[in-house]
Write a structure and sequence with these properties.
alpha/beta, Rossmann fold, 6-stranded parallel sheet
């Protein structure tokens, strides 16, 4: 019918452009212009890290897609020598799903503590991230993942799935791409890091954010999109 012939598509990544071509035909007019994230800090604040202790942050909407429930279930399997504190921040979008999460939280062992702080004002996100060792977001899919980038931008490694643009994280010493089945082991390994080991990943994750931001010509991309 040619319903999409006159449309101009905005893709935020090359992979997203490929998805549009696959779904709507290869003749589509597609402009790739990346999301504009917050600029990385010039100098990030180091976090004190002791082996056996880990402060995690979940920062996102609370829906099944983000797999918070599965993340909480993974914490059930952590050994006693790992003391983990998880802060959950973000609006509850699916109340039934949150009820399941709350039920798991009540069953967690004493060496795993969880605190839900509700939604967070954008201007307070950076400070909240700096108060934790890492961000965990096992999302089923992200076209960019603003929370992931913002964590990297303040020098905090990320723990995430294989379904975001941020892959090969461990090779870059910037974080960890893990399957849900491997999440308990990964969290234990991160918790057992000492200061020196942890600092390597903080440096790597901040550098990844700086490199990404410096390579993006956001002005030219959006001039092409709207010109």
């Amino acid at each position: 019918l040619g319903l999409f012939d006159q449309l101009h598509w905005h893709a935020t990544t090359v992979d997203e452009a490929k998805d549009i071509n696959r779904e709507f035909g290869a003749a589509q007019q597609i402009f790739v212009a990346g999301n504009i994230p917050r600029q990385p800090l010039a100098n990030y604040v180091q976090a004190e890290k002791h082996s056996g202790k880990l402060q995690l942050l979940y920062l996102s909407v609370i829906t099944a897609k983000k797999q918070l429930l599965e993340t909480l279930q993974s914490l059930m399997h952590l050994p006693e020598h790992c003391s983990v504190q998880l802060t959950i921040a973000g609006p509850i979008k699916e109340t039934d799903y949150w009820a399941k999460c709350a039920a798991v939280i009540k069953q967690l062992p004493q060496h795993v503590q969880v605190n839900y702080v509700g939604d967070v004002y954008p201007e307070k996100v950076s400070l909240l991230m700096q108060q934790h060792h890492a961000l965990v977001l096992m999302s089923k899919g992200e076209n960019f993942g603003h929370a992931l980038f913002e964590s990297m931008a303040v020098g905090r490694p990320i723990i995430t799935s294989h379904y975001t643009p941020w892959n090969d994280l461990q090779a870059k010493q910037a974080g960890w791409n893990v399957a849900l089945t491997d999440l308990p082991n990964s969290i234990e390994q991160i918790a057992m890091m000492d200061q020196e080991q942890y600092d390597v990943f903080c440096s790597g994750t901040h550098q990844l954010a700086v490199d990404y931001f410096s390579k993006q010509d956001f002005i030219q991309q959006y001039q092409q999109l709207f010109g």
